[in-house]
From TrEMBL:
It comes from Acinetobacter guerrae. Pfam families: Mob_synth_C, Radical_SAM. This is GTP 3',8-cyclase. [4Fe-4S] cluster 1 binds at residues 31, 35, 38. It comes from the Bacteria. PROSITE patterns: RADICAL_SAM.
Length: 341
């Protein structure tokens, strides 16, 4: 074996040889928050009867795991707002012996005091928690909700022993003053933290490049307090930086440095549309096929998926991000609260 780890190709590979290993499932577009970088002012929620049932979702996950998917992330909207999500996670455990290695959730943490224990019992592996400010007024301004339940939710996952990371989206003039307070807070508690550049996926399409706090700007602020060493990027979207030789912070810089070359993700919306990229202009409606998956043979859907995923583009060129935004401002109806990040 000469020490080389062999990775089997997944059946879902795109034209640039990128195997699809990670599946993100949005289970609802609804959310109790109204983050200014995400939710439109007047959201038009998907109709409940149009959502994929958990039964159909489970069959889809089973099928995808048998075809090379190793990691499933449940997201939204706010995934903990969909009744039955904990039970769904418990059911997913049956896919471990077929190759499923990790089950994660991305949440705003508001409901975690209620669900942390059940999520742990259901076999969840880890969470990404969104938290963009430690200042209660600023948090309220950004999300239209209170900070306190979120901090209590974080304490709840700590007490049940579920691993988690914090993700913070930075917006120019809104919360970039949180860079040092958040790093100091997370470092003190040994919580992994990642800053995310604001992407043009906000519901009301107000994004401009001037609103983005770039990786370089974040590093400049960090350099006021820390000695910074860049670490080797390990097949993850976040670039890691070691601060004072003792704490690593991540930066996901989709705007200033795309990581498309390594992308191994597939996304499914709550009503069953497949997106092969966050920035794809169109999804592929799979719901009718997925409703059939429960009873029918899988070959048709395998071929349809293979074709859709094969066609994934090589990259989005982010210095043209404003161009992307202008072109799709009127055509693209999908935003982050539907795709789940
Ligand atoms: N409601 C959950 C939450 O907030 O964690 C899950 C869904 S949310 C759409 C998933 C992730 O997308 C969050 O970490 C959020 O901060 C991020 N996000 C939303 N809109 C974004 C944008 N325009 N640019 C960058 N990240 C964004
Ligand atoms: Fe809701 Fe998450 Fe979007 Fe905030 S980022 S509005 S919590 S879906």
């Amino acid at each position: 074996m000469n020490g080389v780890v062999s990775i089997s190709p997944s059946i879902f590979q795109d034209q640039y040889g990128r195997n699809k290993r990670k599946l993100r499932i949005s289970v609802t577009d609804r959310c109790n928050f109204k983050c200014m970088y995400c939710m439109p002012e007047h959201p038009e929620w998907m109709k409940k009867q149009d959502l994929l049932s958990f039964e159909a979702l489970y069959q889809f996950c089973d099928f995808m795991v048998q075809n090379g998917i190793e990691k499933i992330r449940i997201t939204g909207g706010e995934p903990l707002m969909r009744l039955g999500v904990v039970h769904f996670i418990r059911n997913l455990q049956q896919l471990r012996h077929k190759g499923l290695k990790r089950i994660s959730i991305t949440t705003n943490a508001h409901y975690l005091t209620k669900y942390a224990h059940d999520l742990k019992q259901a076999g969840l592996d880890d969470l990404n928690i969104s938290l963009d400010s430690l200042n209660p007024d600023q948090f309220q301004f950004l999300t239209k909700k209170k900070l306190k339940p979120v901090l209590e939710g974080i304490a709840a996952v700590q007490s049940v022993g579920l691993p988690f990371k914090i993700n913070a989206v930075l917006m120019k003039g809104k919360n970039e003053d949180q860079i040092l307070p958040m790093v100091n807070w997370a470092k003190h508690q040994k919580i992994p933290l990642r800053f995310i550049e604001f992407m043009p996926l906000d519901g009301d399409q107000h994004w401009t490049k001037a609103d983005v706090v770039t990786e370089q700007e974040i590093l400049k602020v960090l350099s006021c307090q820390f000695h910074i060493q860049e670490l080797k990027q390990e097949h993850e979207p976040a670039r890691l930086y070691r601060l004072n030789d003792e704490y690593d912070v991540g930066i996901i810089s989709t705007i200033s440095h795309s990581f498309c070359g390594e992308c191994d993700r597939i996304r499914l919306t709550a009503q069953g549309e497949l997106y092969n990229c966050l920035f794809a202009t169109q999804g592929l409606m799979l719901k009718p096929l997925l409703d059939q998956l429960i009873t029918e043979k899988d070959e048709t859907i395998r071929q349809i998926l293979q074709q859709a995923l094969y066609q994934k583009t090589s990259t989005y060129i982010w210095h043209k991000a404003e161009g992307f935004h202008r072109i799709h401002q009127h055509s693209r109806k999908i935003s982050m609260h539907m795709l789940g990040g």
